[in-house]
Design a protein that fits this description.
OB fold (Dihydrolipoamide Acetyltransferase, E2P), alpha+beta, N Utilization Substance Protein A, Chain:P, domain 4, 362 residues, GMP Synthetase, Chain A, domain 3, four-stranded mixed sheet
Length: 362
């Protein structure tokens, strides 16, 4: 191979490695395997090793000999252990030792190109899959930005760069309209790494979507000054988040909302008008449950069964509808947020029942 051909070869090698984001060493190994296979096919020689110089693109071929215990039946392909150890001290039977450099035929470049193509392409494909899988393996539960590529009856297909993900239409925010070719933020709800590369399931309705958006937009959440305890969500309608801090001089709710709601505004915009209630987490479940039933006030909470995680919340007439919410939404979200089954009752009914019980006892 002349100098010009070497330079072209090296340029192509670098281009493939860069384009496919594959380690250059893997491409070189594939080239070496392919060149050896081409020479074997063309010359009918089996004991061939190819060497590609990564700096110059120079290709050299060598005949190898296998180390045998004693008797050598074919000097061209075998070498005795005694002779081999004169060259390599610690070589063992069954290993190979590099022999003489082979003369490359003048027409080898053309022949090698045809024979090697399939081997090189296949190995690069395998390496590319491995590289993509490595890139995406830690993306489970993370937020990504992609481009809406196409859609069918049930799914959107999102271009995530070197791979694509599936966004089911029942996993978008109710009421939102997605436009093909536009950029979209998505949450990786499921990730599986298989032989064909990563399988990526996406969502915009998952509660984790809200969590990751908040972490991006609120510096105190990303640096750990404010902690996000839990998130409960009914996509397209309302979310509740519970936050707290170990710093006495920090207001966790104020840090999330920001002055005049400016910090949380960009999150609300991404959620297509969905509302977010920010409540204070407390280690005391009684206080936490009362906070979670916000915007209801004056809530009296008692734990009915700690093991079963059941609680009773008594609310006055003025706050009863707020505690329950439209179609029970507020108490449902509060239950998910606190991990307690919350029963909301009017305070006056409970008082009247208690008084009746006392009177019967008298």
């Amino acid at each position: 191979m002349n100098k010009k051909q070497m330079q072209e070869f090296l340029k192509a090698l670098n281009s493939i490695a860069e384009e496919k984001k594959v380690d250059k060493k893997i491409v070189i190994e594939a080239m070496e395997q392919a060149m050896a296979a081409a020479y074997k096919k063309n010359e009918g020689v089996s004991n061939v090793e190819a060497s590609v110089d990564a700096e110059t693109g120079d290709i050299r071929l060598y005949s190898n000999r296998t180390v045998v215990e004693e008797e050598v039946t074919n000097p061209e392909t075998e070498i005795s252990l005694e002779e081999a150890r004169k060259i390599v001290d610690d070589i063992e039977v069954g290993e190979t030792i590099r022999g003489n450099e082979l003369t490359i035929p003048s027409n080898f470049g053309r022949v090698a190109a045809g024979t090697a193509k399939q081997i090189v392409v296949q190995r690069i494909k395998e390496a590319e899959k491995e590289s993509i899988s490595e890139e995406f393996k830690d993306k489970d539960g993370e937020l990504m930005v992609g481009v809406l590529q196409r859609e069918d009856q049930h799914n959107y297909f999102v271009d995530l760069g070197r791979s694509s993900g599936i966004l089911p239409k029942d996993q978008i925010i109710p009421g939102e309209k997605l436009v093909m070719g536009s950029s979209v933020k998505v949450y990786v709800s499921k990730l599986e790494i298989g032989p064909k590369g990563p399988f990526i399931m996406l969502s915009r309705s998952h509660y984790g979507f809200v969590k990751r958006l908040l972490e991006i937009e609120i510096p105190e959440l990303s640096d750990g000054t404010v902690m996000l305890y839990s998130v409960a969500r009914e996509a397209g309608s309302r979310s509740k988040i519970a936050v707290y801090t170990e710093y006495t001089n920090v207001d966790p709710i104020g840090a999330v909302i920001g002055e005049k709601g400016r910090r949380i505004a960009s999150v609300l915009k991404e959620l297509n008008g969905e509302k977010i209630d920010v409540v204070l987490y407390d280690k005391d479940p009684v206080k936490f449950i009362a906070n979670a039933l916000s915007p209801a006030k004056n809530v009296k909470v008692s734990i009915k069964d700690e093991n079963k995680k059941e609680a009773l919340a008594l609310v006055d007439d003025e706050n009863l509808s707020l505690a329950i919410g439209k179609k029970g939404q507020n108490v449902k979200l509060a239950s998910r947020l606190t991990h307690y089954k919350i029963e909301v009752k009017p305070e006056k009914d409970y008082v009247e029942t208690t008084e009746e019980t006392i009177e019967e006892g008298e």
